[in-house]
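Budget justification, computational time. The allocation requested in the original proposal was used primarily to generate structure tokens for proteins on the priority list. As evidence of use, we reproduce two of the resulting records. The first is shown immediately below.
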Amino acid sequence: MNIFHILNRGIEKKKVFYDKTDYSRFIAGLYKFNNKNSALRFENKNFIDIPKQNKIVEILQWNIMPNHYHLLVQEKVDGGAVEFVKRIGNGYTKYFNIRNNRSGYLFQNAAKIIPVVHNKHFLYLPFYIESNPIKLIEPNWKENGIKNSKKAAEFLESYFWSSYLDHISIHNFTEIINQNLFFQIFDTNPEQYKADFLEWLSNVNLPR
């Protein structure tokens, strides 16, 4: 099945995640809406009670920033990535609008759903996705490089709204992702992934 890098932002790049409740609600949606029989509405805040069978995608990575999110998924059914994006977007927008007494769209109309190509950049894609939170402490790091890679690495290990912790064997939201599939696809393991990630941070030179 195909692998896709998914990215969506708030309208006009506005903030869409304000506090722990918002982040937690979106994360719950990643779990609950990943089911062929999933409905868009749910009330039970304990998202671990939903069976894992009948998933429409395997989530390999996820990362939530204040005004956007990234996902790396492998489809289990044709069109699974598009359907999953629609579900999580509609579900979170409904929650957000009710909580904030607003109406209308929250995310940009068309999420970017990019097929992942196995080229020279393939192995670095996970690093790119899970390094996004560094922007919160070094806003211009993608343009100017990281000033302090050690501080950046420590910050990533304190950032709960990402799959990075689970990928380096720090239990966070392990139920959401398929760790074994991630390590198989990228031919790595928790120790090697962390070592390679930290080396990449020390030498990263992203195109402007």
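The second record produced under the same allocation is shown here.
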Amino acid sequence: MFSTFTGLEKDTVPFVKAGLWAVSLCLAVGIFLFIKAGYFTALPAGTPTGEGQQPNGGHTYWRPPPLDEIPKGEEGDLVRYGRELILHTSVYLGPNGKVKPISNGMNCKNCHLDGGTKTFGLNYAAVAATYPQWRERSGTLVDVPERINECIERSLNGTRLQEGDKELKAMAAYLMWIGKEVPKGTIPVGTGMKKIAFLKRPADPNLGKVAFDKYCIECHGAKSEGLMAPNGQEWMYPPIFGDHSYNMGAGLYRLGKFASFVKYNMPLGTSFDAPVLSDEEAWDVAAYVNSMPRPAKDISNDWPDISKKPVDHPFGPFADGWSEYRHKYGPFIK
């Protein structure tokens, strides 16, 4: 399930000629890595970045570079604008967006917590190091701008930005800057979401409604109406079902992803090392939320190789004999 952790590889000269030099270099590198804790503790490339990396004991979690390291000048201005777009997407691209009205009113930060920097909060740590990458969902090689557009179309139920748009360039620049310290081909510990354990029973929407009323309505509302920010341009707490939420093609429409996100990030302020909901509550809340109405999405071209479909992808055809109901609600263990 989890890959072996890798270290920093260096070419060395023959030990006989430079043994002492190599030892000194290793010590220096070790001290440097200790100071830059988390940036270079990584899993091998090829490990799915969206499934969450869960470290063995003694390993350090990735931390984002400080904002004061954003350079001055045009390059830095683009990064700063990209961060602003991640934090306040709807102000610029929402229904009344000042740039263009192409999305549903949610902000990227509603899912990519703390502007894409939170540990196991769908952060952007691995973006610079792992893109372009092959995506089984589309069956294509995807670069960073394309991945951003996928999120806009699915999670924001919106319309794609164009290749030359400043906003697309800015968001890509911010995502690349966030992961600037991560060596190419590695995945920092704490990327994506921490995986929740599978249940031995199907997730239950009725039990999920009970948990939703207990934990979620204070922010999201009893009918998932959300809470609008004082500026009237974006959600302070977004609707998580209904017309203004993510559509059926979004990653969070998969129960495993939603349950993992809720377990280790919700209610807002929860951290992965001190979860509030039990595993059962997280799965059941996911079942309830994703059983409610939301925008549709044409996904007929998704997963061209059906053998690569995740077990919790709820739309056929499937490579196994399970029903669509089981692929949506589980149990996901045989």
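A brief technical remark on that second record: The chain has two domains: 1-192, 205-329.
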